[in-house]
């Protein structure tokens, strides 16, 4: 029986896979490609600005640091003699702890600055602050209310700027999420992630990243809480470019159907406290429960960037073996370390590249 075009393509794919992938050494061609990627001197305001290979490189460096420091008990003073300014307009547990302890663990000196310590845009302009900090430290992480603040800092600074969170994006959270999923599932390409909740900054970062990693994304938000229009248009373009699926709906069960990963976040972010009563009413039916998981794939897992409230996900899911929230929280440390090392040094990972 003659081979049809599909059979030929399938055979070719298997041959290419067997040639490039060695279980002990990872992807030969891919590793060579990622080894040449350099991010030194770059800023990270949004993963929209990063290519597929650049995001994979960040995850690879993060996995490498975790392997060597946590499991290998090695001391890697890769940032010795360097300092980071950590500007926090918004409070945080994970962002502060992961950045501060991670930078110190790598031999550097973190300096934490709240709105009471620094007069960002009040008694001193963002322009002047950026130029002053450029002469006093090597990198800045800023957790701010307005994304435009980050853009101004980046425009005026001569050192890398990292977005620790803005109202538009939360890129360092998404790096942790995808490292967690890669560790759990063994690879990322082909997974389906379902977001059930608010069309917020974390979702926006998922939308700028998922397709680049071969991940399908299904989004359920209540009407009136959809993601940003510009972000949605870019996500649709990326999905088409990378051959992944992007689904937008207002039905949580439709989004959860056939998914590997169920994700949600707070329904009431900092600065939205006055909207809480209305938001809780509008998000009725969006709580993730085992019933939600019943329509997902048998191997489904759960993510939440924390802090979590009961109305978003019940205890049965949150504390179950399907919940990856605490490894996800820990990976905030390894991924911010990987990002800082990548932006400040020419470090090359010592472990083989994970399968993406």
TrEMBL record:
The protein here is known as ornithine carbamoyltransferase
Family per similarity comment: Belongs to the aspartate/ornithine carbamoyltransferase superfamily. OTCase family.
Q: Which residues form a coiled coil?
A: none
What PANTHER family does the database record attribute to this sequence? ORNITHINE CARBAMOYLTRANSFERASE, MITOCHONDRIAL, ORNITHINE TRANSCARBAMYLASE, MITOCHONDRIAL
* Associated pathway: Nitrogen metabolism; urea cycle; L-citrulline from L-ornithine and carbamoyl phosphate: step 1/1
Keywords, A to Z, come to: Amino-acid biosynthesis, Arginine biosynthesis, Mitochondrion, Transferase, Transit peptide, Urea cycle
| Annotated compartments | Mitochondrion matrix
PROSITE patterns registered for this protein in UniProt: CARBAMOYLTRANSFERASE
> EC class of this enzyme?
transferase
Q: Which residues form the Aspartate/ornithine carbamoyltransferase carbamoyl-P binding domain?
A: 42-183
Q: What sequence ranges are listed for the domain Aspartate/ornithine carbamoyltransferase Asp/Orn-binding?
A: 190-342
For this protein, the Enzyme Commission number is: 2.1.3.3
Give the species this sequence originates from.
Poecilia mexicana
Matching entries from InterPro entries are given as:
Asp/Orn_carbamoyltranf_P-bd, Asp/Orn_carbamoylTrfase, Asp/Orn_carbamoylTrfase_sf, Asp_carbamoyltransf_Asp/Orn-bd, Orn/put_carbamltrans
**Xref: Pfam families:** OTCace, OTCace_N
Q: Which GO terms describe its biological process?
A: citrulline biosynthetic process; L-arginine biosynthetic process via ornithine; urea cycle
